[in-house]
Amino acid sequence: MDLLCRAYANASDDEEVENSSRPILPAKKRRLEGHSFHPIPFSAAADHGRLSSGETGQAPAVPGRYVSKRERAILSASSMPTDSFPPVIIPPDAGTLSDADLPGDVKALLKGHGKAHVHGNKISGKLSLTLKGHSKAINSIQWSHNHAHLLASAGMDQSVFVWNVWNKARKKICTFTHHKSAVTDVRWCPQGLFLLSCGYDCSSRLIDVEKGVETQQFKEDQVVQSIKFHPANSNLFLSGGSKGFIRLWDTRVKKVVHEYLRHLDPVLDVEFSVDGKHFISSTDTSRSNISENSIIIWDVSRQIPLSNQVYTEAFTCPCVRYHPSDCCFIAQSNGNYIAIFSARPPFRLDKFKRYENHGVWGFPIKCNFSLDGKEVVTGSSDGSIYFYDYRTAELIRKIKAFEEPCIDVVFHPLIPDLVAACSWNGEISVFD
To answer: Where would I find the WD repeats (predicted)?
Structure first.
């Protein structure tokens, strides 16, 4: 619990406290940049406040007056000609996005000629490499399906990184800090070299990775917790957030085309079905009837819930995932197990099978299926990766990955015996 409290602590802890015995000038009014006013749990956006246009930006020279760190930053920034601080961007160098410099054995695996495709999923648990760059907890990682040597990560340090995992010269090839607060989720666009991310600054942002620029911003009135692209139309994506609103966005018109309303508590995760006709939402039902709305199955086109009494146990579910081929889905429960449900009405919980050996304990720990759907993998609060047999729910193997909680684990889209995992202390590890 201490780890959770530290990670979600107010970002203004570093602000220096002024001595009350010293004379203080009247405070000047500041405005937030580029955002409608919404209270958010981080003060990073406010830290970039600027003096209003009618102010000179120069404080009167008062001998012995103490000037705070924040005021010094504002005064120094007032001479800038632009109206806002540009985000820190480290665009990729020429060739760093390419797979030209990859080792020969990796190239063979990515092209489908590797032995892993013959023998199937046989992860030995050997640490292949470690990626370090995030300064705080990582919330989400995802491999690119179109450029399978690239991995994206999003963290509490307000950053989105793109990694060329097997590049010997430079692994972290892109750094994007367009978000003003913690980034909660990141997804590769099914078409092109684009990333979609969302976070505590009440927005989702589409980034052109090749050019290193933000192309679109989708503002909301809530912290955005989860995003998912439509499996059949890459112009559409779902977003779910802290006020319980679930929205379907169209990137072509930059507008909401559907909104799914049920007076919900905060949305923890959303997941499209394989055919894109339905989606699952998982919500924090702590303020409502625990037997309803924890997991809801929605009809995408009709905008109605097909069932809202799917999971009636007294636990929230931070992650939901559809099986890649079977008609079922799983949900990570804060009861320290993964539950499995039928994806056909009436969407019954399988009371005789659950995946339980790992721990969740309030962390946003995610689970996933292997490429062939034969295994279920999950992170754990003890820093380990757990692999379960999908059919029998038996524990197949356990890998000690980190000293702090393992938050997300994802199988590689082309190499079935390779997984990437991220931790609460900002590390990423790749195992084969």
So the answer is: 131-165, 176-217, 224-259, 369-398
Specify the amino acid at residue 378. Answer: T
Q: What is the DSSP letter of 27?
A: P
Query: Strands 319-322, 304-307: parallel, antiparallel or unpaired by DSSP?
Result: unpaired
- What does the pLDDT average to over 362-390? 97
Please name which of 114, 97, 151 lies closest in space to residue 411, comparing C-alpha atoms: 151
Three-state DSSP string of 353-399: EEECCCCCCCCCCCEEECCCCCEEEECCCCCEEEEEECCCCCEEEEE
Looking at residue 15, the DSSP 8-state letter turns out to be S
Q: How confident is the model at residue 108 (pLDDT cuts 50, 70, 90)?
A: confident
Of the chain, the percentage scoring pLDDT greater than 90 comes to 65
Residues carrying CATH 2.130.10.10, the chain = 89-431
Residue with tokens 């449900």: 341
Give the homologous superfamily in CATH for domain 89-431: YVTN repeat-like/Quinoprotein amine dehydrogenase (2.130.10.10)
Contact 152, 188 (CB under 8 A): yes
Phi-psi category of residue 194: left, alpha or beta, with phi > 0 → left and psi -120 to 50 → alpha = beta
Summarize pLDDT for 30-80 with one digit per residue, the tens.
Answer: 443 443 333 334 333 334 433 333 333 444 444 555 555 555 555 554 444
Q: What's at 86, amino acid-wise?
A: P
Residue 308 gets which letter from DSSP? S
Q: Which two tokens stand for residue 74?
A: 């504002």
| HEC string for 127-150 | EEEEEECCCCCEEEEEECCCCCCE
CA distances in angstroms from 388 to 19, 121, 175, 338, 374, listed in the order given: 57, 12, 34, 10, 9
Residues 6+ apart with CB under 8 A from 55: 28, 78
DSSP state of 14: G
Cβ-based neighbours of 220, under 8 Å, separated by 6 or more: 202, 203, 204, 239, 241, 245, 247
